[in-house]
Write a structure and sequence with these properties.
The structure is a single chain. This protein is mostly helical. The chain is 61% helix and 0% strand. The chain is built from eleven helices and no strands. It has helices at 2-18, 29-39, 48-59, 64-74, 87-99, 103-118, 127-140, 144-153, 164-175, 181-186, 204-208. The longest helix has 17 residues, at 2-18. The chain is globular, with a radius of gyration of 18 Å. The two termini are 27 Å apart.
């Protein structure tokens, strides 16, 4: 169980800090500034309080990227305790963003649901049921992130490996141009090389290491 907890926390933090998004739209300048304040640059020092103020301003105008980044400050975490913990605000922001097809929000909610089920806890949101139609719409538009997220929908919380179906989705996402998320996860699909007509020398782990 602790391995699962560490995996979800690590993944969630990665999503937060990188602010990944497959949707090709101009990023809100407030969100861009907030990310710089979160990570720091050569000329800008890290200042989470200023970042929070900018994200709150953008979120008030229904910017879903800002909502996802802001939500993480409300999540119980000793590492990012810049705001009082508020799981309701965290969830409300993520749910609103997910309903607006924000992939980062959907991924966080899917992974959280998987963790809760793996620990035999009551899920706080029925993410698989609620967001599968949105993910399917993304797949119809050939959005590679949607293919990656469908692997989360198909995930068995008790499984330790990807299924062939999940690996095929990751392969499709990679073929559509997602070498970052899909490529990294494909390294765990080497047991299915025969299904992809690949040799050991040309394995996924060899290609994407």
């Amino acid at each position: 169980h602790m391995h699962q907890v560490k995996k979800i926390v690590k993944s969630t933090c990665l999503i937060w800090m990188l602010g990944l998004s497959s949707v090709v739209v101009a990023e809100n300048p407030l969100v861009t500034q907030a990310k710089q304040l979160q990570l720091g640059t050569e000329t800008i020092g890290i200042d989470h309080q200023k970042a929070i103020a900018l994200l709150q301003q953008a979120a008030a105008k229904n910017d879903t990227d800002a909502m996802v980044l802001l939500a993480q400050y409300y999540y119980p975490s000793s590492k990012y305790s810049y705001l009082p913990e508020n799981t309701k605000k965290n969830l409300d922001l993520l749910i609103f963003a997910a309903q607006k097809s924000n992939w980062d929000a959907i991924e966080i909610l899917l992974q959280r649901e998987g963790l809760e089920k793996g620990l035999m806890l009551t899920s706080s949101v029925d993410a698989k049921k609620n967001y599968k139609p949105i993910i399917e719409q993304g797949m119809a538009k050939k959005d590679p992130r949607a293919y990656v997220l469908m692997t989360e929908v198909l995930k068995d919380p008790y499984a330790t490996e990807y299924s062939l179906e999940q690996c095929k989705l990751l392969y499709q996402a990679n073929q559509l141009g997602d070498a970052w998320l899909a490529g990294a996860r494909l390294q765990e699909c080497d047991m299915y090389l025969e299904a992809f007509n690949l040799s050991e020398e040309n394995s996924f782990s060899a290609q994407y290491t």
